[in-house]
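Researcher: Quick test of sequence recovery. Tokens follow.
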């Protein structure tokens, strides 16, 4: 095992493996550090009934794609792990599994130094492919919850039987929060859901999966530079829907109609009494407006392209909140557990290179940072909506591979002092240079 590589990739998930595929195709010596094993995050941070929200046909990685018999279905968590393991086996990346990178710095000579659980390594260039979901984000208000309540983060939730008998409060209505609330609801557990500002989308519209329409419309390929508020776009929550049981809408109003209790944002805890902000109606209306706006865009596309598609009636709210749902006495309601579906924090403290903004977000242009030779891959909205998904990571990885190769060529040219076009009989390395 070498201690120096042209490129070090940190993270062996779909982003890191995609990067390795392109580097291997270019003949670039590299190593991929993975703290656990391929598919570890999908294996350990998802609940038992978890499935992808994106259809199987969108599971496309460089040189590898879904080839099963249900392209419009949705992979279960175990299927995703199997997909990634088979992808890695298809090209045998130089993966060091079980190796944790604990420190990254750039020396004065411009070489990157990586301290790991397996010792020190160096690299000319580094790709950070660890994604954005590092440390579970649990708000400090959790410390004030009544003693005796079982509290778990969404990454620790597995199934309803894991929690003690009684009602469950789920805080957060992004994709995880809504799907966990549904999981508990379908199991017959009394559920209380603190609703946030995440938008929703219909699972299907006018005869097709909504995501299929958006893909055909080019929505996944829109660059972040097309938006006036790029920084805010990157922070937006994903639309909630589900791929469960073949895929369907998640309609929080229907849950409420069927017995789930909905509230606004959790605002205060005083003993057993929880107080919620009076913003539930606004949050539900805003989520519906986003879903209907997506339908409007699909209608316009269908009309402009002259596509024959079945007409479909628009959504009509099946429930509206009243003013009595702003307080919850957890003792009186028999609440025994809280699931915090409140997202994750980024943790880049191990990176000792000044490439972060005041919020801790890496500043970059299509993954290229201001530090020569340091790149990020697999971030949501790194370049397009698909960047953090299976469907879009290949485009970003290929772009970064081109930048990495160009930097290598330039460095090599600077070191040996020759220009492109030098005869190979004079400098045999020129043949390699042209191929790279």
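Model:
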């Amino acid at each position: 095992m070498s201690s120096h590589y042209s490129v070090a990739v940190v993270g062996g998930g779909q982003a890191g493996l995609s990067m390795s595929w392109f580097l291997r195709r270019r003949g670039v010596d590299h190593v991929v550090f993975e703290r656990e094993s391929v598919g570890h995050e999908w294996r350990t941070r998802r609940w038992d009934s978890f499935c992808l929200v994106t259809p199987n046909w969108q599971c496309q990685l460089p040189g590898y794609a879904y080839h099963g018999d249900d392209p419009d279905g949705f992979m279960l968590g175990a299927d995703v792990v199997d997909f990634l393991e088979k992808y890695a086996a298809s090209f045998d990346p130089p993966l060091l599994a079980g190796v944790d990178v604990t420190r990254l710095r750039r020396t004065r000579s411009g070489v990157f130094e990586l301290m790991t659980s397996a010792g020190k390594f160096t690299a000319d260039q580094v790709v950070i492919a660890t994604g954005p979901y590092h440390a579970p984000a649990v708000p400090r208000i959790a410390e004030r919850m009544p003693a005796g309540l079982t509290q778990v983060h969404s990454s620790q939730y597995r199934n309803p039987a894991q929690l003690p008998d009684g009602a469950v409060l789920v805080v957060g209505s992004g994709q995880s929060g809504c799907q966990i609330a549904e999981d508990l609801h379908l199991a017959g557990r009394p559920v209380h859901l603190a609703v946030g500002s995440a938008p929703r989308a219909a699972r299907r519209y006018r005869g097709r999966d909504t995501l299929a329409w958006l893909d055909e419309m080019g929505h996944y390929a829109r660059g972040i530079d097309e938006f006036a508020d790029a920084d805010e776009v990157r922070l937006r929550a994903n639309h909630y829907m589900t791929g469960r049981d073949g895929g369907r809408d998640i309609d929080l109003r229907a849950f409420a109609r069927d017995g789930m209790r909905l509230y606004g944002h959790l605002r205060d805890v005083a003993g057993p009494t929880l107080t919620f902000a009076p913003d539930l109606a606004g949050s539900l209306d805003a989520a519906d407006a986003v879903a209907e706006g997506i339908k409007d865009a699909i209608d316009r596309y269908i009309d402009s392209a002259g596509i024959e598609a079945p007409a479909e009636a628009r959504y009509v709210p099946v429930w509206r909140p009243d003013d009595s749902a702003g307080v919850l006495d957890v003792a009186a309601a028999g609440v025994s557990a809280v699931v915090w579906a409140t997202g994750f924090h980024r943790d880049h403290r191990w990176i000792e290179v000044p490439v972060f903004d005041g919020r801790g977000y890496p500043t970059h242009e299509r993954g290229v940072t201001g530090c020569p030779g340091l790149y990020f891959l697999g971030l949501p909205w790194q370049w397009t909506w698909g960047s953090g998904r299976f469907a879009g990571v290949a485009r970003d990885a290929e772009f970064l591979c081109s930048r990495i190769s160009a930097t290598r060529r330039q460095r090599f040219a600077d070191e040996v002092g020759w220009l492109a076009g030098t005869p190979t009989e004079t400098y045999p390395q020129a043949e390699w240079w042209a191929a790279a």
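The domain at 137-343 is CATH 3.50.50.60 (FAD/NAD(P)-binding domain).
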